[in-house]
Amino acid sequence: MGAWTPEAEPSSTGGAAVTLVEGSSFCISTPNGDLSGAGPHGVFFRDTRILSRWELRVDGETPEPLAAMTPAPYRGTFLGRLPRRTGRTDTNLVVERDRRVGNGVREDLTIRNSAGEPAGCTVTIAVEADFADLFEVKDGRVQARGERRAQGEGERLVLDQRWRDQHRGVVVVAPGATVDAMPSASDSAGVIRYDVVVPARGAWTASMLVQPVVDGQDVEPSFPLDRPLSEALPAQRLERWQESTPLATAGHEGLQRVLRRSQQDLGALRIFDPQDPSIAAVAAGAPWFMALFGRDSLLTAYMALPVDRSLALGTLRTLARRQGRVTDPLTEEEPGRILHEVRLGVESGLSLGGGSTYYGTVDATPLFVVLLGELARWGAEPDEVAELLPHADLALEWVRRHGDRDGDGFVDYKRATDRGLANQGWKDSWDGITFADGTPAAAPIALCEVQGYVYDAYRSRAELARLVGEEDVARTWDDRATALKVAFNERFWLPERGWFALALDRDGRAVDSCASNMGHCLWSGIVDEDKAPHVVRHLLSPAMFSGWGVRTLSTEMGAYDPVSYHNGSVWPHDNAFIVAGLMRYGFVEEAQRVAEGVLEAGLHFGERLPELFCGFDREEYPEPVAYPTSCSPQAWAAAAPVHLMRTLLRFDPHLPRGELWVDPVLPAAFTPLRVDGVALGQSRIDLDVSADGTVVEGAPAGVEVRHAWSRSPDAATRS
Questions:
Q1: How far is Cα 18 from Cα 36, in angstroms, rounded to an integer?
Q2: What span, in angstroms and rounded, lies between the C-alpha atoms of 573 and 300?
Q3: How far apart are the C-alpha atoms of 298 and 452, rounded to whole Å?
Q4: SS3 at position 237
Q5: pTM of the prediction?
Q6: What is the percent of the chain with per-residue pLDDT over 70, rounded to a whole number?
Q7: Is the pLDDT assigned to residue 7 strictly greater than 80?
Q8: What backbone torsions phi and psi does residue 215 show, to the nearest 5 degrees?
Q9: In 10 A of CB 542, how many CB atoms?
Q10: Rounded Cα gap, residues 671 and 249, in angstroms
């Protein structure tokens, strides 16, 4: 995952920051709820920081923080108390800030007085808006631009900025307050003031609404002051999500907490199409990637199929709508190509030469076809598949015409201009692809896992053809898959090392690093059976397996660094696909070992797996070490526990063939396990795994439940 510069990687939010998320909006604050005006703190809407400062003071004092709670992903409750008053040993005033983030912010402020006499105080909130682009904030390069205004209008504070053809604004509504505008050269600013008497053993309350303005039009707030909070759209969406998604109950309490946190985070990271709110896709992760990403959204939707099949359909439809049509070197758009990233901030057009969509990714396009094939196996309606099939064919045409730049039969990448990402696979940092001695590979680069994705896409397209009786078409794609598999095992295999090359470089040389990417090759099924044991031995070796998961790069490689983004860290989503690959080739104990390590790591991060963590060995430190700029929550990290459990359950539906394969190999510590309400076709099934066996209830009519393993590297179904 990355932005549009070769060095892109997330920036730190600070160790104690609190992040609230709803759709593509988010808020980063201190533990007491303040937005300090420094660093990454702020409220962000459509990739623009609409509040850069929001500081509460009572009689000029900052409340001492007592607790910060997040009852919902979009909601934060901050408790504090005032410093002691003269002549008292303790304070009698407790301050509660209840904040909800969506289209803007609503904050409900309560001051409670436990004393026997009324307490007078003055409450002020300093407000600033710099309207900085998200990438300016992330990179610490915010600069003032354009014309800024600040106006006090009764109980309303209006702040805005005009720059070129962009008009961004925010309106703060504070009933009962005195509002003063404080224009400055660098920010639009103001102060909200309440003169308060808090009753004896009573409370005082006030509510404030922060409403974005885009191109002069007020955006409908998510939590309006005149409607009950329970009727707000984010609250209703979350309630519907919780009611409609499966519920897992495990004998292992920690596992149950990790699974439920994953489910909650996936719901919070959904982004809805403003033209059709029934279509939801998944944003890549908070705080810096609350936008649509091709690769991240596709892989997350794949892993999240047991939780919500509609995410896959919504992601495919959303990406199909923006599928490449023309050739544009600045945005790297090409006909049939699936996008890398969509941005809406004030600088997005400048970053991409006039467009908000950037296409520089090599793997999203074949993964589009892979996800469509898997969605069909889970029981998508035939008309839904038919609607997307032409887009799958356009994607495969890109793979064959544009993806293979040098005509050697392998899909590769090279950025079109110096604005693009230098590396365009999932390890997209500038130094993410290196030889064993640490030397960076030169583009065009053909990544090993991408060949696996293409192989999988060919097999998926063949299967989709068979569903509609097109046997000749199916044979054509099967033949292409077979030819690619043969060529891959010849060119990428390094017999003297016993692993697959990470990539081929511009000269066709094997990039000989031992990296986690080859685990994805196991998942796709492109690896020959005789080579799989060698791959597995290296993936589970001390140089690769840290005890918490498989590292992205072996400790024996020249570029290894346990505190790097892609060269020695541990990524949960990477491990989820490695585990699926291990299981696919029959390495059950190894799959269990890696899955247990990753899921146990989640317990050390508050039951929420982060985007990545450091690659230090488990024997070196008793807990996994956090990576300082890791996104959390992050979409494919949130989906990883779901996919790990699907793999351990060996749960493989193929509804078009009337089959559901279930053959659990759960570690003993994870049983008993019950999952209620998994959507399959038009039905919902319940799954109960215990020492006495496995029971499946509610299978769709005409579907045979087979208590066996459908494993085969060349099988259409996958663990």
A1: 13
A2: 9
A3: 16
A4: helix
A5: 0.88
A6: 92
A7: no
A8: 50, 45
A9: 12
A10: 10
